[in-house]
Structures are given as C-alpha cells and as structure tokens.
Amino acid sequence: MPEVERVGRGDRFAFLSLRACASIGETFRHVRRASYHRTSLMLNAIDLLERAISFCTNHWVFFLVLVLAFAFRNVEPLLKRLRPAGEPATRDSIACGLVVVASLIVSVGYAQLHGTPVPRYHDDFAYLLDGDTFMRGRMSNPTHPLWPHFETMHVLQVPRTISKYPVGQGLTFAAGSILFGHPLRAVWIIGAAACAAMWWALRVWTTPALALLGGMAVAIHPTMLEWMESYHGGALAMLGGALLLASAGKDKTFGAMAAIGVVLLAITRPYEGLILCIAIGVVLIRRVTPIGIAILLAGLALIAWNNRSITGNPFVLPYSVYERQYDPAPNFLWER
C-alpha cells in the first residue's frame, strides 16, 4: 500500500507539473500574441503615418489651395477692389493669362535650370516613334523582314510597326519637332493650354478668385511639372477633359469646345475618356449642336483611319492587337 500510495502521489505530482507547464506555456502564448498584436498595430500606425506624410508632401499644393480657399471666402469684396478696373471679360483674360504664364515659367524654367529632359522609359520611346512616323507623313511603318529581332516594349511589329498607343501624344511630338525643333516644346504649350482650360472649368463652376487660385495651383503642381518634363505625360488628356467639363457646364450644350474635348480624350485616353464622356453626357448635356457633331465625327474618322492603316480594321485599336499578342491576360472580361 505505501508503494501504491507513493506511485499515486508521484502521478499526481507529474500531472500537476504538466498542468503548471501547460498553463505557463499558454500564458506565454497569450503574452506573445498580445505583443504581436501590439507590434502589428504599431507597425500599421507607422505605415499609415508615413503614407500620410508622403501624401501631404506630394500634394502640398492642394492643401495650400484649401487653406487659401477658406481664408479668401470672406474677403471677396477686398478682392473685387484689388482687381483691375474693366469689364469682367478683361479681368478673366488677365487671370487666364497669369495661369498660362505661370505654367510656361515653371516648365521652361525647369528645362533651363536642369537641361532639356531625355527619354528614359519604354513609353517615351514608343511615343517618340509615333512622333517620328507622323512627322514623315506616315501613319505607320512597314514591318521589318527581321522584325523578331526588333521587338521592344509597347511597340507593335505585326501587321505594321508603330506604338500601341493612341495618336494624340505622337501628333503632339510631330508638331513640336516640325514647328519648334523639339518634341517637348509642344508639350509645354499643350500643358499651358491645359492649365488655362482648368482655370476655365473652375471659372464656370466656382468664383473668379477660386478659379484663379486653382489654375495657379495646377500650373505649379509637381505632377504637372512631371508631365511637362517627360515624354509620356497626360497634359493633352487633361486639356480634353477640362474643355469638356467647362463647355458642358457653361451652357449644358455639346458644342465645338465640348466636341474638341471628346476628340482629345479619344486620341489620348479612350477608355477613361469614354467613362467621363458618358457621365458628363448623362448629367450635364441638354442640347447638341451641328458643329459639335461635325467635329466629333471628324475625330472618330481620324481614329478609324488610323486603326485601319495599322490593324486593317477601323474598329480594332492597335492597343488591342498588341495586348492579344504579348499579354496573356486580357484587360477586360469581354475580351476572353
């Protein structure tokens, strides 16, 4: 009996020891899990803080605009006294001119200080190929007999050699090379026009003071400067969107300016432009003019002619042909 009792006591001691170890291990697991959660929350908070700082650093102009907008909302009478005398059209012309001059000073001044930018990305060389092709009076180039050795990013080789992109940026480069001796000089002018169009859109939808403030903010914004000093910027698409928004908001009419905006979107960013056009057409457009329809049809005819000269089908974009050849995953579900 004493032996049995000692064995029983030993089993109970072992059981209690194992239970104590399990409890200690469970406690450590809870502590470690809590520590992990605290560390994870801390890392997430640091990441969010870094993202917020980065956003504020990259978009400081917009925060400045918001601050100034709230600051100027109660001093409109003072701004009216400070404006030059004359008709409202004269004051608007001066404001638009200030925006254009600011944009040109920023873009041209940067090039003078740091030198004219050179192409660096695959997109840049693809757009320059378009510009060189259009400058020579061709819509595309014949396929080289040894084309597999010349394959490169964003350039279609078969059935014709040309970039996959719409013609807008290439036409801008061709005009810059012919008229000003360098492709980017046309980009600077287009960028200044885009800033002026943004001022006009803001003038239609807001007050003159906020329109001037917003136009100047766009002209000096870092993203705008990046577009002005690169070969794949979005100034032409921005010009089209601003023209469409301003002209449609002014009199709810699809006129000449709105049609030009639609065409510019179609030859630069057709997919995003289509969404914007549908939204504005449904919400704003109430009347369509013959001149607007004529300009729109002329732009669509240019796109169809370009498509047919490259793909053989006026309704098939070179972008779609390139994606079918080189991209294993379609961009849209209906392309499967």
What order do the helices and strands come in, and which of them pair?
Layout: H1 2-58, H2 60-72, H3 76-82, H4 88-114, H5 122-135, E1 155-156, E2 162-163, H6 168-179, H7 183-205, H8 208-219, H9 222-228, H10 235-251, E3 253-254, H11 256-266, H12 270-283, E4 287-288, H13 290-311, H14 318-326
Parallel strand pairs: 3-4
Antiparallel strand pairs: 1-2
Helix pairs in contact: 2-8, 4-7, 4-8, 5-6, 6-7, 7-8, 7-10, 10-11, 10-12, 11-13
Structure in words:
The structure is a single chain. The protein has one domain (91-326). The chain is built from 14 helices and four strands. It has a two-stranded antiparallel sheet. A two-stranded parallel sheet has the order 3-4. By secondary structure, the chain is mainly α. Strand 1 (155-156) and strand 2 form a beta hairpin. The model is unreliable at 1-7 (pLDDT under 50). The chain has helices at residues 2-58, 60-72, 76-82, 88-114, 122-135, 168-179, 183-205, 208-219, 222-228, 235-251, 256-266, 270-283, 290-311, 318-326; strands spanning 155-156, 162-163, 253-254, 287-288. Helix 7 (183-205) runs parallel beside helix 10 (235-251).
